[in-house]
Write a structure and sequence with these properties.
single chain; about 280 residues; alpha/beta; two-stranded antiparallel ribbon; globular
Length: about 280
């Protein structure tokens, strides 16, 4: 269950570089590597806490067997959340969790019980804030109306622009955009990704439609990652972009810096060609 030492060293290199670039949010979850990701992230960041100001977010709700390393099911009950927060605190070696997120959610959940659990943990100082990681409109709407969530994490990029329909109701919530590269479509390897991962297209797009739009975007900038970041930053507050190597993070930071110099109006016409998608499921 332990990560090889070389993997921990690589992870520390990534985190050290991130901090040097003033990246101040680090995202994990109890389910990632069945607790091991929390351990490694917490262990490494503890060495830098006195010198850097940053936030660590983790998630709860997916019940798993750490010994067998497999997910068991969905469990948003107060008993489970309050039990698991202790394990996360221990694994991350912290006295309180900066941001504790519900890792999903269904309309059938006893959502009031879940909300009460998070509110209790916040009142007790065990967590500093809480949020929701979900793409289900009916679940999101309930938490927006009936809880004090601080954050909402959901996939958001020029192709998956479904969150736009929710933005007007999120004025007091920090929007955290995950999946900014859309599994590699918004990278220099977009053609290869399109061919191997999405040969039949995705959402309401055919492969030819995606190829055409991405080609037009590349006429504005050959850095599709920068264009995606620019698009996201016009609507969301935080970009959550996963990396597995230092090189990936360095490339992402180069793209981020370029994104700050891009004028959205330079490619607004092309963006209009992206279909306005909406969440068709989980609306009631």
């Amino acid at each position: 269950m332990n990560l090889p030492l070389e993997d921990e060293i690589k992870t520390e290199e990534i985190i050290e570089y991130a901090l040097s670039e003033n990246i101040n949010y680090f995202d994990t979850a109890d389910l990632y590597q069945f607790g091991r990701n929390e351990e490694v992230t917490g262990k490494i960041l503890s060495r830098y806490r006195s010198r850097h100001d940053f936030t660590i977010g983790t998630k709860v709700g997916n019940e798993f067997d750490r010994h067998l390393q497999q997910k068991i099911g969905w469990n948003p009950t107060a008993k489970y959340i309050k039990g698991q927060v202790k394990n996360s605190l221990h694994r991350m070696n912290v006295d309180s969790i900066d941001l504790y997120q519900l890792h999903g959610g269904t309309i059938e959940d006893d959502k009031d019980e879940t909300i009460e659990a998070f509110e209790d943990l916040k009142a007790e100082g065990i967590i500093k804030s809480y949020g929701l990681s979900s793409i289900r409109p009916n679940v999101i709407d309930y938490y927006i109306r009936n809880s004090n969530i601080d954050t909402l994490m959901l996939q958001f990029n020029p192709i998956d622009n479904r969150p736009l329909e929710l933005m007007t109701s999120l004025e007091d919530v920090v929007v955290m955009a995950r999946g900014p590269l859309m599994q590699g479509l918004f990278t220099q390897k977009s053609a290869e990704v399109l061919q191997h991962k999405f040969p039949d297209g995705m959402f309401n797009y055919s492969s030819d439609e995606l190829n055409a739009i991405l080609g037009e975007l590349m006429e504005v900038s050959d850095d599709l990652t920068a264009l995606s970041y620019r698009y996201i930053l016009d609507s969301a507050n935080i970009i959550v972009s996963g990396v597995s190597t230092l090189e990936q993070l360095e490339n992402n930071m180069d793209s981020y810096r370029k994104s700050l110099e891009i004028n959205s109006s330079d490619f607004s016409g092309i963006l209009q060609k992206f279909k306005k998608l909406r969440y068709e499921e989980h609306r009631i």
